[in-house]
From TrEMBL:
CDD domains: SDR_c. This is SDR family NAD(P)-dependent oxidoreductase. It comes from Streptacidiphilus alkalitolerans. PANTHER family: 3-OXOACYL-[ACYL-CARRIER-PROTEIN] REDUCTASE, SHORT-CHAIN DEHYDROGENASES/REDUCTASES FAMILY MEMBER. Keywords: Oxidoreductase.
Amino acid sequence: MATDLDDPSRIVIVSGASSGIGEATARHFAAGGDHVVNLDVRPPAADAPGQWIEVDVADWSDVERAVAAVHDEHGRLDVVIANAGISLRHGVLDITEAQARRTLEVNLLGVLALWRAAAERMLPRRKGVLLATASVNGTRGYPLYADYNASKAGVASLCQTFGLELAPWIRTACVTPGAVLTPMQRAEYTDEMLAEVNACIPMRRHADPAEIAAMFHFLASDQARFITGQEFVVDGGETAGATTAF
Ligand code: NAD
């Protein structure tokens, strides 16, 4: 079994690392020398770093099996980033039960399952960091994404309670992005919509996924050792306050 002395790089699990924010995050950590394990329903790019395990985060036995396998292979888990998520656009009267359940099972219960399985294995070493991707949609009302918004508010709540229960040994934090130009986000836009959204953001653009990855990298580091239970908004000023025309 591997030990810290055998392998100084951290063992980092990232869910949803085959695309977008997760992919950028996996590449960022791997570039820093960490060993990355990607849990995703889809295969990653051919040049993606680390390992891929096919996992549906909504399936708790799938998540448990994957986390156990990573822990058995490496002898420890250092950082877990619960990032996999889905969003569907629909008015509150059009949401179907199946869509709402799926959104909550992936975005909210998927985080709970992954963090729970990881925390159980981190606690004996009294060390570890649990991170997740929330969203500014969870911090205020946002039309046409009721189930998604609720799932992300729930992630911020999980972050608080896991942080309290697992302190002082295990730290938690969420990154709460505004608009990030990823495949998930781009697929929802026409060119006109993209320009309109950019105009509503004080920085006048979407985030690059690498800018979210950089925040995860900081939160996972020892520089963030006094941080737990909190969410960190990275949104180009979108939710800083009211926008005015003058
Ligand atoms: P994306 O679609 O580019 O990537 C999501 C990844 O998650 C994909 O690789 C997908 O296969 C995987 N995935 C989806 N369902 C899964 C499941 N059940 N099990 C395992 N893997 C699954 O999306 P993205 O924009 O990079 O989003 C990543 C996270 O960031 C999501 O949680 C999303 O809600 C959040 N977020 C995105 C934005 C944005 O503007 N893009 C803003 C705020 C929050």
